Amino acid sequence: MTQGRTKQELEGISLLGNQGTVYPSTYSPELLETFENKHPNRDYMVKFNCPEFTSLCPMTGQPDFAAIYISYIPDRLMVESKSLKLYLFSFRNHGDFHEDCINTIMNDLISLMNPRYIEIWGKFTPRGGISIDPYCNWGQPGTRFEAMAEHRLMNHDLYPENINNR
Length: 166
Description:
By secondary structure, the chain is α+β, with helices and mostly antiparallel strands. It has helices at 81-89, 98-113, 144-154; strands at residues 34-36, 46-56, 63-73, 77-79, 117-124, 135-139.
């Protein structure tokens, strides 16, 4: 087969195309699914934008809202988008600080697919007059992607938001 994916390649993908989607009510990393990267010999970036992320403040129980940006360079495996959407939805009733949510998401995605490089940025809506925008990244140790992660972290957000460009 020269185009598309074979049934064997799609084995293990159960959520995409499923009309009986059940939205999780608790943090559910087991929802994440992968498929094989058809272009493992090429470095390229995949980016997901989730403008409707919600979680709960662990102290007050109040909802926190954010836009989550996930970018990664795949290696052998890629994350399936519907499973990622449901996984991110599973944070809706999860009580954790902004920084912990972002690092948890990154840790789960690294464990799932071992990308060459990954970065996650959460831009949380201000509450109490202050916004918190955690950023984390990771590159495979011992590769040029480890150096890329260090460089991007050290040069991240050189032009921070202000009231006019948030």
